[in-house]
TrEMBL record:
This is aspartate--tRNA ligase. Residues 162-430 form the Aminoacyl-transfer RNA synthetases class-II family profile domain. Keywords: Aminoacyl-tRNA synthetase, ATP-binding, Cytoplasm, Ligase, Nucleotide-binding, Protein biosynthesis. Its main location: cytoplasm. GO terms for molecular function: aspartate-tRNA ligase activity; ATP binding; RNA binding. It is found in: Cytoplasm. The keyword ATP-binding applies. It comes from Miscanthus lutarioriparius. It is an enzyme of class 6 (ligase). The keyword Ligase applies. The chain holds residues 79 to 508 of 508 of the full protein.
């Protein structure tokens, strides 16, 4: 085959070289009958291609006219020679130009796209600047973006978000593999709810009532029972959320880990702020927010605690541990010294939960009792409970929401921005 160049690789050292590139026509600017510019884009890189009608270069005025008729975002091939511009280029990422010899339209985009990429790519700072200058810019709403996601994804910030997401997932995997965890895959079509509660998608499995897994929880524990000392899973998780929030999806990617435990390791986390739940409740109380002693923190209380922790301990990152029994899932191990509390924790970034974990109950009797107390029909999870009667080691683990973590790392305000094709209570397409 022929040798194709990547736009991102084109720098000064390529000057004088003949190249062949394929990209999306991000901008097309006719200058005169004899001259035009076409900016080509590949993911986050752009380069300016210059068409000048000249017999030497084998470029005709018809060819210049032909290229200026391309619709924006059409896929275009260019053969040309890399040159250095006379002045620094402001509109492209690459500081070289391509002197076009040949240009082909491989697949045209419709003449008017439903969203304009330039509008979609604008930052909040652009809007502020425009406002000061008395200009009016088009704001592309989140819903419109999601409706036309195949266009919206082309903005530099979206290209960055999903590359970051890939790296976060990769780091999770790499780290756990380096600690001898084994990656597993557990079923997503299951017979009973794994986290309890109403947030479960019900379906018929060959006529039998079933549901979509709310987490790999029960099966990752059964893998521990099955002799795998340390396991992890990266996979889809389904929650039939019925409220629209900035941080809940109906389908997200769960990063889960589960491991045997032999002793208490908590004290090894010396650099991370660890706050007992009771202390968090006390801090909130002193700041005027009353929490029911055995109740849960709502979103607002979590946010407020995040601010209080920031003021008192100067950190955005902390672990809240020893949650009340009543607010944790049935499989969570009660504290030995006070069974009204649990050996459990959540990890927060800026007052928003990203990780949830705990030691698990490893005796079948207590597990069945807790399930019943939590209103779960034990017959729907009998195989899970029985697994703990065949010899099961003490164990614990945690789950992280990939989209949630990326949203908070990137300081984005909506989880839909970190899900490529989000599923929320209203959205099933695209
Ligand atoms: O807190 P959750 O429900 O915990 C579990 O699923 C347990 N099985 C984990 C464990 O091993 N103990 O979910 C874990 C994480 C949350 O911390 C949050 O980051 C994310 O998943 N999460 C959601 N992300 C997006 N949309 C939702 N509806 C989410 N619900 C939870």
């Amino acid at each position: 085959g022929r040798s194709w160049s990547q736009i991102g690789d084109l720098d000064d050292s390529a000057a004088g070289r003949s190249v062949l590139i394929r990209g999306a026509a991000q901008a097309i600017r006719p200058v005169s009958k004899k001259m035009a510019f076409v900016v080509l884009r590949q993911s986050m890189s752009t380069v300016q291609c210059v068409l000048v009608a000249s017999a030497d270069a084998g470029v005709s005025t018809q060819m210049v006219r032909f290229a200026t008729a391309f619709s924006k975002e059409s896929i275009v091939d260019v053969e040309g020679v890399v040159s250095l511009p006379k002045e620094p280029l402001k509109a492209t990422t690459q500081q070289v130009e391509i002197q076009v010899r040949k240009i082909y339209c491989i697949n045209r985009a419709i003449p008017t796209l439903p969203i304009n990429l330039e509008d979609a790519a604008r930052s909040e700072a652009d809007f502020e600047k425009a406002e000061l200058a008395g200009e009016k810019l088009v704001r592309v709403g989140q819903d419109t973006r999601l409706n036309y996601r195949a266009i919206d994804l082309r903005t530099p910030s979206n290209q960055a978000v999903f590359r970051i997401q890939c790296q976060v997932e990769n780091k999770f995997r790499e780290f756990l593999l380096s600690k001898d965890f084994v990656g597993i895959h557990t079923p997503k079509l299951i017979s009973g709810s794994s986290e309890g509660g109403a947030a479960v998608f019900k379906l018929l499995y060959n006529g039998q009532p079933a549901c979509l897994a709310q987490s790999p929880q029960l099966y990752k524990q059964m893998a521990i029972c099955g002799g795998f000392e340390r396991v992890f899973e990266v996979g889809p998780v389904f929650r039939a959320e019925n409220s629209n929030t900035h941080r809940h999806l109906c389908e997200f990617v769960g990063l889960d880990a589960e491991m045997e435990i032999k002793e208490h390791y908590f004290e090894y986390l010396d650099k991370t702020l660890k706050l007992p739940y009771e202390e968090g409740v006390q801090m909130l109380k002193e700041a005027g927010t009353e929490i029911e002693p055995m109740g849960d923190l709502n979103t607002e209380a979590e946010k407020k605690l995040g601010r209080l922790v920031r003021e008192k301990y100067n950190t955005d990152f902390f672990i809240l541990y020893r949650y009340p029994l009543a607010v944790r899932p049935f499989y969570t191990m009660p504290c030995y010294d006070n069974p009204a509390y649990t050996n459990s924790f959540d990890v927060f970034i800026r007052g928003e939960e990203i990780i949830s974990g705990a030691q698990r109950i490893h005796t079948p009797e207590l597990l069945a009792k807790r399930a019943t107390e939590c209103g779960i029909d034990v017959s729907t999870i009998s195989a899970y409970i029985e697994s703990f009667s065949y010899g099961a080691p003490p164990h614990g683990g945690f789950g992280v929401g990939l989209e949630r973590v990326v949203m908070l790392f990137c300081a984005l305000n909506n989880i839909r921005k970190t899900s490529m094709f989000p599923r929320d209570p209203q959205r099933l397409v695209p």
